[in-house]
């Protein structure tokens, strides 16, 4: 998996499973703030449960911003803040990914 410049900054606190770059809620908040500061849009947030080497998607902890103007950093921060302290890991789907 080729990490983006922003992901490189967070790689020591991330978990990568099956090519998915995952962060705890408080770290995902910092990642969204870094995206905002860099002018990188957010396409969505995907929540996962991590169990060893496996991950399980959690639809109730995911949001898709397809079709929006991608300036949804504040909505992303609110969404993630409401899940702080939960045993959920998040993939932040940022617009700087070329895949």
Could you explain the architecture of this structure?
- The model has no long low-confidence stretch (mean pLDDT 93).
- By secondary structure, this protein is an alpha+beta fold.
- It has helices at 5-10, 25-38, 73-81, and strands at 15-17, 20-22, 42-51, 54-64, 89-94.
- It has three helices and five strands.
- The strands form two sheets. A three-stranded antiparallel β-sheet has the order 4-3-5. A two-stranded antiparallel sheet has the order 1-2.
What is the tally of beta strands? 5
Principal-axis shape: globular
Structural class: alpha+beta
Mean pLDDT: 93
Compute the number of helices.
3
Helix-residue proportion: 25-40%
Largest sheet: 3 strands, antiparallel
Rg over alpha carbons: 12 Å
Question: SSE order in H/E notation?
Answer: HEEHEEHE
* Strand arrangement in the largest pleated sheet: 4-3-5
Q: Any low-confidence stretches, pLDDT <50, length ≥5?
A: none
Report strand %.
25-35%
Distance between the termini: 10 Å
Layout of helices and strands:
Elements: H1 5-10, E1 15-17, E2 20-22, H2 25-38, E3 42-51, E4 54-64, H3 73-81, E5 89-94
Antiparallel strand pairs: 1-2, 3-4, 3-5
Could you give a short description of this structure?
This protein is of the alpha+beta class and 99 residues long.
What are its keywords?
single chain, 99 residues, alpha+beta, two-stranded antiparallel sheet, 5 strands, 29% helix
């Amino acid at each position: 998996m080729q990490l983006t410049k922003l992901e490189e900054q967070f790689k020591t606190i991330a978990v990568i499973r099956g090519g998915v770059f995952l962060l705890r809620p408080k770290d995902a908040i910092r990642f969204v703030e870094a995206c905002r500061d860099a002018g990188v849009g957010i396409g969505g947030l995907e929540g996962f449960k991590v169990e060893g080497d496996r991950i399980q998607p959690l639809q109730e902890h995911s949001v898709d911003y397809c079709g929006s103007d991608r300036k949804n950093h504040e909505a992303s921060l609110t969404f993630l803040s409401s899940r702080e302290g939960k045993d959920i890991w998040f993939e932040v789907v940022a617009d700087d990914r070329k895949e």
